[in-house]
């Protein structure tokens, strides 16, 4: 039986495993296996809510084992360590519990077709002190760490109120892209709620300060200037301090130092600027073969069919892959890109094991559907691509908030189907009547 192994259970990898499981695994046409170092899936665009404590992970985390059982694929727990292209095997690391006790040993997994979808990580560009003193908001573990540090800092402030001459509790966010902007607004909303939970010595306006730093001349450079200006106006209404055109040159335990000489004191520093693929991809598939080709961002180089340039049996997509477009550009590292590529591979890969074998579809063509940025409960901004506008049109306020919510529902539909998504939505509505608005543990 043809063995398809997918490494990476992010939005794209899990959607592909789910689709192939129903298409091939259920019919016994192929064995589909998903590999991930974690046991559960969280939709990455919600990490800022998890960090602020406004997102209940237990209500929406997807268990890989349960998803695999329901959708006819297998799940292996482990992190990809190495790849032997000649033998068509990959080695997974052992996994351990919180006490260090081994859960699974090192494993060797064979494949006929391998798909790599391990996503990306935050790029600190080698800035001195960033690795030691900043939380990089790119994993659920990092988001939980930020939430714990925030709650602990608030408890500390409650126990030892400010005295004259001491500064406020300050959260400095490096990066004015979607993640940084969304996190700033979400933290402001969280601070207001925390006061109602007994942190009465913390005034969101005076005792907690949120600072957003961006090296570019404006926020949200991926969006049109009009929407960038709109987001900036909303943030300033919330008294969030914004610095654009300021490059961070050093991060310390006490704050940030800019190239201009500006120093920003910080209690908690979050790095949300820049992305790159994992370093191990540059060595993947080396001994006894030539390693797979990568670019300066560690992304695997692929062709229009998502096949890696040095091995036609290995595919890669999402943030970890550099996929060319007919106009000479590259597919951007965005959630919608990974989803579109997953759906493309869900049409292409079955041709390897069915009578249609050999019939390749046209190369992948990315269709930009626009961008939406949530400013917590306050507002949302975005641009949508469509033929009605012969380009793009802008959405703000409640309409943008509804459309942002709809993106999450689309993700749930892809993984669970219509009935399950309706039930999840009803459960969310019921939970809001009794669940605290902010997670405090």
What gyration radius follows from the Cα positions, in whole Å?
23 Å
Mean pLDDT: 83
Instruction: Please name the CATH topology of the largest domain.
Output: FAD/NAD(P)-binding domain
Please give the number of β-strands. 28
Characterize the main sheet.
Answer: 6 strands, mixed
Residue ranges: pLDDT <50 for 5 or more in a row?
385-391, 433-441
Strand order of the largest sheet: 5-2-1-11-24-23
For the record, the CATH architecture of the largest domain stands as 3-Layer(bba) Sandwich
Percentage of residues in strands: 25-35%
Helix fraction, binned, reads: 25-40%
Task: Decide which structural class fits the backbone.
Answer: alpha/beta
Fourth-tier CATH superfamily name of the largest domain: FAD/NAD(P)-binding domain
Number of structural domains = 3
The CATH C-level name of the largest domain is Alpha Beta
Measure the end-to-end span: 47 Å
Count every helix, treating DSSP H or I runs of 4 or more residues as helices.
10
What coarse outline follows from CA principal-axis ratios? Answer: globular
Structure description:
The chain has 3 domains: 2-120 and 277-352, FAD/NAD(P)-binding domain, CATH 3.50.50.60; 130-274, 3-Layer(bba) Sandwich (FAD/NAD(P)-binding domain), CATH 3.50.50; 371-431, no CATH class. With 441 residues, it is of the alpha/beta class. It has helices at 11-25, 47-52, 57-60, 64-70, 130-133, 140-159, 178-196, 225-237, 335-348, 397-431; strands spanning 2-7, 30-36, 40-41, 62-63, 74-77, 80-84, 89-92, 95-96, 102-104, 107-110, 113-116, 121-122, 135-136, 169-174, 208-214, 241-244, 248-252, 255-258, 263-265, 268-271, 275-276, 300-301, 307-308, 311-316, 321-322, 371-375, 379-386, 391-396.
């Amino acid at each position: 039986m043809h063995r398809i192994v997918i490494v990476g259970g992010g939005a794209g990898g899990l959607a592909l495993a789910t689709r192939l499981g129903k298409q091939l695994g259920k019919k016994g046409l192929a064995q589909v296996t998903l590999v991930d170092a974690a046991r559960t899936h969280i939709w990455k665009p919600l990490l800022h809510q998890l960090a602020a404590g406004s997102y209940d992970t237990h209500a929406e985390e997807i268990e890989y084992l349960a998803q695999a059982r329901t959708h006819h694929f297998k799940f292996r727990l482990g992190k990809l360590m190495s790849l032997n292209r000649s033998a068509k095997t990959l080695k997974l690391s052992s996994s351990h519990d919180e006490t260090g006790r081994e859960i699974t040993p090192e494993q060797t997994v064979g494949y006929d077709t391998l798909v790599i979808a391990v996503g990306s990580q935050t790029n600190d560009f080698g800035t001195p002190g960033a690795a030691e003193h900043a939380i990089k908001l790119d994993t659920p573990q990092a988001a939980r760490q930020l939430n714990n540090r925030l709650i602990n800092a608030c408890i500390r402030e409650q126990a030892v109120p400010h005295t004259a001459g001491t500064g406020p509790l300050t959260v400095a966010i490096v990066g004015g892209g979607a993640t940084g902007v969304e996190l700033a607004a979400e933290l402001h909303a969280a601070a207001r709620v925390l006061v109602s939970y007994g942190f009465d010595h913390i005034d969101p306006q005076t005792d907690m300060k949120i600072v957003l730093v961006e090296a570019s001349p404006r926020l949200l450079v991926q969006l049109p200037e009009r929407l960038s200006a709109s987001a900036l106006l909303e943030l300033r209404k919330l008294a969030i301090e914004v610095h654009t055109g300021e490059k961070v040159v050093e991060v310390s335990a006490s704050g940030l130092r800019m190239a201009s000489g500006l120093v920003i004191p910080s209690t908690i520093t979050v790095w949300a600027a820049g992305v790159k693929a994992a370093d191990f991809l540059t060595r993947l598939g080396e001994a006894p073969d030539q390693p797979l080709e990568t670019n300066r961002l560690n992304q695997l180089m692929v062709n229009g069919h998502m096949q890696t340039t040095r091995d036609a049996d290995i595919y890669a997509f999402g943030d970890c892959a550099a996929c060319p477009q007919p106009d000479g550009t590259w597919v951007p590292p965005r959630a919608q890109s990974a989803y579109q590529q997953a759906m493309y591979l869900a049409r292409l890969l079955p041709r390897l094991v069915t009578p249609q074998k050999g019939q390749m579809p046209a190369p992948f063509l990315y269709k930009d559907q626009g961008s939406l940025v949530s400013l917590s409960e306050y507002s949302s901004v975005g641009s949508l691509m469509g033929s009605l506008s012969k380009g793009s049109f802008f959405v703000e306020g409640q309409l943008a908030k509804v459309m942002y919510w709809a993106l999450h529902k689309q993700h749930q539909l892809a993984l669970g189907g219509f009935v399950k998504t309706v039930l999840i939505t009803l459960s969310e509505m019921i939970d809001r009547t009794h669940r605290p608005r902010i997670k405090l543990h």
